[in-house]
Amino acid sequence: MEDSLRLAIIGAGPIGLELALGAVQRGIKVQVFERAQTVGGHVEGWQFVHLFSPWSMNMSEEAKLVLKELGPLPDEGAFPTGRELVDSYLAPLARVIQQSSNCEGLHFGTEVVTVGRGALLKSESIGGGDVQMPKGKPLCEKQRRETPFRLLVRQAHGSGEERYLEGFDFVADCSGFYASNLSNWAGKGGTPALGERALRSANRIFTTIPDVLGIHRERFAGKKCLVVGAGMSAATTVRNLVELSKTEKNTEVTFLTRSAGDPYSVIADDVLPQRKILSEISNRASKGEVPNVTYLGGAAIREIKQAADGRLRVAVERSSDGSVENSAFEVDEVVCCVGYRPDTSIYEELQVHQCYASNGPMKLAATLIGGSGDCLAQVSAGVDALKNPEPGFFILGGKSYGRKSSFLLKIGHDQVRSVLDSLVPGPAT
């Protein structure tokens, strides 16, 4: 139909593709933009990691209906790796979407640089209302909600050629956050440690989970390594290094967290056994009960610098009983698993109300305050929490949680349903 709604989706990951599938089924014209050359660009970065949630929590009912026509579905009780998530779920989902007459294109190797709204400035048409123009100046657009979105895109690899694409009624940013350039800083108070910026620019330190037992094995085998962080990425890295030390002599780990005591809360009857195992191993390591692991709790990195022999000298500050203790040591590798922050530059010219603590959209962030420590206890906040002051612009998936790491794919599937129902009410056709 000529008057079909048009939707631009940023990111061809798990949530971007779920949204694209639901949209084309409802008659919405869709274009998907993915910076990587394949689906699930961020997932490729942790393809060797097993999810601690089973397939049953990572597949939507809508996707299963179309994928079962292509062949057997994955075992819902199995725990997939990132590689299996891409090959068995995301890639076939993308093929189904591309076959729809409502799909205007899945653009790989294409980065969305920024999103605007016609000729409107960020400061104009507050809340979508009439534009108040100075006397004698032409009125370019009347209201934000009536003005189509305009995307500046560029070739992510090669020439970097730029172009504008216009005429979108809605835009959904599903671009995620798992990337080296989006990692938080490892220094005190979340600021860069001295020397950290240069070492990150030189790719000398890891800011995503290294494939310790695979392609990065030689960098860690028989070496001393520092792991910073107290999330599941850090726990995964510590566990893998401990496993490596069983067959590679002299492999040693220093495990550093900003809080003292047990770094992880263990849920007694956790329905996700892999999560419980990771938490328990890390807590035992913090008590000195795991061979080849030294624990530094209540600590912060002051400086990281590279010595002449290529090793890294790390200066650490620890606080205890009001006193501060400084120390330094050398390691071969540093892995900073300290979380990620969303790239907000994409929508800096739109009217988006961001949380001052998490950088996520404010309405959704408000619903997450004081939530349960168990990410499984989450429920979808509904479409109203996903709306921004910018009419028709949505931030979905992991990026919608800002710096919070408790997002689950099942929540993203709920987000997709609620947004689609708000755009085209009624069941999918």
UniProtKB/TrEMBL annotation:
| Transmembrane parts of this sequence | none
- What keywords tag this UniProt record? FAD, Flavoprotein, Oxidoreductase
Q: Name one GO molecular function term.
A: oxidoreductase activity
Gene3D superfamilies (UniProt xref): FAD/NAD(P)-binding domain, NAD(P)-binding Rossmann-like Domain
What SUPFAM superfamilies would the database entry show? Answer: FAD/NAD(P)-binding domain
The entry's protein name is: FAD/NAD(P)-binding domain-containing protein
Listed PANTHER family? DIMETHYLANILINE MONOOXYGENASE (PTHR23023)
